[in-house]
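Lay summary. Proteins are chains of building blocks that fold into shapes, and those shapes determine what they do. In this project we predict the shape from the chain. Here is one chain we studied, written as its sequence of building blocks.
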Amino acid sequence: MLRRFLAVFEPFILMLLGTVLLASFVPPRGAWVQIFGIAADAGIVLLFFLHGAKLSRDAILEGMRNWKLHAAVFAATYALFPVLGLAITALPILDGSIAAGFLFLTLLPSTVQSSIAFTSIARGNVAAAVCSASFSNLVGIVLTPALVALLMHSGGGGAQAGVSLASIEAILLQLLLPFVAGHLLRPVIGGWVARNKKLVTFVDRGSILLVVYTAFGAAVVEGLWHRVSAPDLLVLLLVCAVLLAIVLAATWGAAKALRLSRADAIVLLFCGSKKSLASGVPMAGVLFPAAQVGLVILPVMLFHQIQLIACAVIARRLSEQPEG
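And here is the predicted shape, written in a compact code that computers can read:
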């Protein structure tokens, strides 16, 4: 099952890296900037519309029952991570926009697909993972932009995301409204969405690739790779790895302190330690100026690859251990 899961994600990782390379050498210019910008916005709207149609109300109600587990996942996602993000922004070795990107990373909701998949591989509580991950993403649509507005108002070279009327309008029209519309239309289109998972996956990943190409292209035109050198990338990878290691250790320790069952501890480990690229890239495209998005989402992209590799290894190790 592990090989099957990695086989699903490996092409997307390669496409993601290929998109970054394409944007680095052939960034959109002239009229193409507006064309790709419109396409990226349309992809974001469709992405959140389909996510709204996928989420059932039963999942919301079920998520309220195992309150201890879900509260722990919520605390790891929206309390522990942001505290670590604020600590990272204080590091003098990081550029202002890169540091802001790390803070933005820590404010994102958890992943859905990979959290559930890794929980299943490790023989954890899959139903609870579905509830926790879905609830995290549902709350994140509102909470992440609110935390960004509250915490990311730095000046100077850092990325700025204030509570401007334009940003509120963009959040409502591109994120929240499509999500609510999709959820309200779930009785009509929910079955069709469930039967066409490949189309949903295509939209999911296609919208991410569009936003990444548009964002990185704009950043390259503004001199991204003149500001981020090879040593800088190594530092970014190291910070991402340390951040993930701290959260993995904290969530596993919290599971023991709360005396969660092994199955629930696995849910806290995987749902509480992940950050969603699928939500992060579109949100960054809405919340930040186009020239800053490339630098802001760079930590998100690197962290995403590291968390997939590390959690795949951990899930396999857990699956080989006796449940006792």
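What the prediction tells us: The chain has 15 helices and no strands.
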